[in-house]
Amino acid sequence: xxxxxxxxxxxxxxxxxxxxxxxxxxxxxxxxxxxxxxxxxxxxxxxxxxxxxxxxxxxxxxxxxxxxxxxxxxxxxxxxxxxxxxxxxxxxxxxxxxxxxxxxxxxxxxxxxxxxxxxxxxxxxxxxxxxxxxxxxxxxxxxxxxxxxxxxxxxxxxxxxxxxxxxxxxxxxxxxxxxxxxxxxxxxxxxxxxxxxxxxxxxxxxxxxxxxxxxxxxxxxxxxxxxxxxxxxxxxxxxxxxxxxxxxxxxxxxxxxxxxxxxxxxxxxxxxxxxxxxxxxxxxxxxxxxxxxxxxxxxxxxxxxxxxxxxxxxxxxxxxxxxxxxxxxxxxxxxxxxxxxxxxxxxxxxxxxxxxxxxxxxxxxxxxxxxxxxxxxxxxxxxxxxxxxxxxxxxxxxxxxxxxxxxxxxxxxxxxxxxxxxxxxxxxxxxxxxxxxxxxxxxxxxxxxxxxxxxxxxxxxxxxxxxxxxxxxxxxxxxxxxxxxxxxxxxxxxxxxxxxxxxx
Length: 504
Hints:
single chain, 504 residues, alpha/beta, nine-stranded mixed β-sheet, nine-stranded antiparallel β-sheet, 16 helices
């Protein structure tokens, strides 16, 4: 055992798309006895704040690295979200037009291991020497990767980890059990989108997963590894149900906006839009981010070939209430993100800004507004937070109990990434569109991406070995999981890690 280590092995199960309140309700009802056992003598938090936007990427990737999106030529995760346009700083001068990445496309999914860049490390890369196992964990860099024959079979994900402790020689030539094992459960997300978080099939799947977890725990006990293993459980994000689901294709047709084609560089825009829309527009070329002037005088290639003020155009999308975009003069280490809110009744636009400075865990952000608090903090906080520089831990402490937790820190981290979009809009979940890269991809009202607590709060559980302290945390971050597991192993995390061990 490493000096100061409390355990020799860690196992992390990452569920996709389960709210903290839903999981802990099932635990309290006695329907998840194995998860209940882990919380009883271990560490748990019912109020763990995930990354923003609350989408599988960046959330899942940030959990496994302990870091966030950033200016990736220098620091941070190079993946800003699930869909992104490949732009660089300085802009490319190549003849090829920038491709867009879509991790829901199987051919793109495994590219995440290269896409995250060299300035962050997975937990496997941070954990030193040993064997490492990924069971359907797509961010597997630094580990042995196993995929079940059927992508949507959940039981083999747990069984593959159990087998690595029963017969490690079948996977590893040195016949030693894995130091770090991660299992990823995507099917909970698939069912949530198709049937909803209140559907019996979704709830029963969570219950079955607890049973599979129980079988894994039993294997650890039978093989003598349980008392020396930490078992972590977390989800990447929560969820919500949109009040309305609309088709946006006719809106873009009316405005003369043609979807971007990366093959020939034609078109005016690219967007992924659930209840949040991430809009990319071309500047001097598609390799360049546009200036505010270019966005206000944007030549479209569709009907009439007219010029649009894109800020005004996007406010016309049904239900849009929030808008964010970067300032023209931003630098990687210092800049401004403009934030606006539209009053749903009067239609008046209220203005605010987020000023950022620094990198990584040293980044500070200041939030201010003119007439009305864009995020409604003033209605919930006694402290006046305007124009005060706060670190991420300060924002976590201040906002963990209210909507838009920690987003003042998160929004600049997103926009500093050269692969981030140009304008973000949000309906706050009243309207959903399911629009991706030029077409509508579904009609489900069940989603996750916005900054409300339903979508941002996830469960955080670490149990197993008796050396793990019994702690109930008032709040924490999803990026605290990896540094906590490394702490239990007696290992110092990589310099890129922004999360921190909750044990100390």
